[in-house]
Amino acid sequence: MSTEKEIFITQPDMPPLEDFIPYLQQIWDSRVLTNGGTFHHQLERALCDYLGVEHISLFTNGTLALVTALQTLRITGEVITTPYSFVATAHSLLWNGIKPVFVDIDPRTLNMDPARIEAAITPQTTAIMPVHCYGHPCDVEAIQKIADNYNLRVIYDAAHAFGVRREGLSLLGHGDLSVLSFHATKVFNTFEGGAIVSPDAKTKLRVDRLKNFGFVDETTVVAPGINGKMSEINAAFGLLQLKQVDQAMAQRREQDERYRHLLGAVKGVHCVEGSGESTANYSYFPILIGDGHPESRDTVFQRLRDNKIYARRYFFPLISDFPMYRGLSSADPANLPVAGDIARRVICLPIYPGLTAEQQQRIVGLVGAA
Ligand SMILES: *Cc1c(COP(=O)(O)O)cnc(C)c1O
Fold first, then answer.
1. What pLDDT, in 10s, does the model give residues 123-138?
2. What is the per-residue pLDDT for 5?
3. CA–CA separation, 255 vs 267, rounded Å?
């Protein structure tokens, strides 16, 4: 057992505490704690500028934002989605009484394989919910083409895709809505938080009503909305965090390059690639343990653990293997061979500002065969 200190898959990038005190002072002075205060408003504006989008609505967390995105577009029936994601993607469908229909992923991008979508469409299908896995863009054009042909809506789970651009534009502009998560483990965090990116002011207004119980004014409620509002404390932290997010991503980029360089010498390890024409946010560092490696993924994973390196098997198990999903016909492993194979081989290595070159070397040393 190593005496080194524990290394987790990620650590939030914390600004100096004293920098947060003036924000807290302002909240205490104003006594506006939530319901769209100054910081909430400022963070929405700042994120629109930073991300290059026009309409954003802040949420308590990404999961409630996903649930609300589906309600915003009145999605019902069946929705085509990926089994290779965090479980909240499919849970948001169940919370709306929608049946998830899983399709397999592309072995290169690990995103939903557009070539498999059409075969999964039935008369009940109303939408597609893809995930930009690890922040790597989905094939947005192919997905939109299918959606247009079959009159389906597209809601992107963009929880990993903060700040990602494609062909010079925000990735978040694709589809009908995009949903972000600002959870503590994400590249940009507000402790807990999330957002919906809307294409126009009218849609944003509906989102904003749905996240506030459906209120239109003091006495009018137009929908069974939820309480999904972000508080002033979370919004203030987001404003502070936003100031250092570019620097954090630059550090992650260096770490990404170093891992690729070091792992180039390790047999049987494949580093998952982003797609060439997009910018990356380096939010995760997924590797696949392949046939060329003399050990199984779980042997490697356990050795990391034994050395207090808490890498994660994102995403294992597949969502479709959890008990509330595995009875669906689309959850049959025979329908999802690529996702099943990747889930058995993947490990996400630690990546976060502050992880040192020496720590990365030690991690890579442990990934190689013992
Ligand atoms: C983090 C995450 C979510 C959930 O976001 P929360 O803010 O934790 O509720 C949803 N989907 C994916 C792909 C995620 O990684």
1. 999 999 999 999 999 9
2. 87
3. 20
27 backbone dihedrals φ, ψ, rounded to 5°: -65, -45
* Residue ID of nearest Cα to ligand 1 atom 6: 62
Q: How far is the CA of 157 from the centre of ligand 1 (A)?
A: 8
Helix (H, G, I), strand (E, B) or coil at 291: coil
Instruction: Please state, rounded to an integer, the average pLDDT across all residues of the chain.
Output: 96
pTM above 0.90, yes or no: yes
How far apart CA 47 and CA 52 sit, in angstroms, is 8
Report whether 190 contacts 60 (CB < 8 A): no
pLDDT of residue 4: 78
* Chain center to CA of 348: 14
Which ligand 1 atom sits closest to the C-alpha of 192? 7
Interval between CA 31 and ligand 1 midpoint (Å): 30
Q: Closest ligand 1 atom, CA of 64? A: 9
The domains located in the chain, with CATH, are: 17-104+111-240 (3.40.640.10), 245-368 (3.90.1150.10)
Distance in angstroms (rounded) separating the CA atoms of residues 190 and 192: 5
Q: What is the pLDDT of residue 3?
A: 64
- Tokens describing residue 36: 């769209």
Å from CA of 44 to ligand 1 middle: 19
Computed over its alpha carbons, how large is the radius of gyration of the chain? 21
Model pLDDT, residue 254: 97
For 69-112, what is each residue's pLDDT tens digit? 999 999 999 999 999 999 999 999 999 999 999 999 999 999 99
- CA 160: distance to chain centroid? 3
CA 66 to ligand 1 center in whole angstroms: 9
Residue of minimum CA distance from atom 7 in ligand 1 = 62
Residue 180, CB half-sphere, CA atoms under 13 Å: how many?
A: 32
CA of 188 to the centre of ligand 1 (A): 12
CA-to-CA separations, 22 to 13, 233, 239, in angstroms, rounded: 19, 12, 12
